[in-house]
Amino acid sequence: MKAEIISIGDELLLGQVIDTNSAWIGQELNKLGVHVHFKSTIGDSREILLKTLHESNERSDIIVMTGGLGPTKDDLTKHILCEFFETKLIQNEAVLKWVQSIFSKRNLPMLSSNNEQAMVPENCEVLWNRNGTAPGMYFLKNNKAFISMPGVPFEMKCIFEEEVIPKLQKQFLFPSIIHKTILTASIGESFLAKKIASIEDALPSNIKLAYLPSVGAVRLRLSAYGNDTNNYSEELNQIITSLYHCIGEYIYGEEDDTLPQVIGKLLNLNKKSLATAESCTGGYLAHLITSIPGSSAYYKGSILAYDNAIKENILHVNKDLLINHGAVSEACVKAMAMHCKDIMQTDYAIATSGVAGPSGGSIEKPVGTVWIAIATPTHCIAKVFNMGDHRGRTIERTALMGLDMLRKELISTK
Question: Counting Cβ atoms within 10 Å, is residue 390 exposed (0-12), middle (13-18) or buried (19+)?
Answer without folding.
Answer: middle
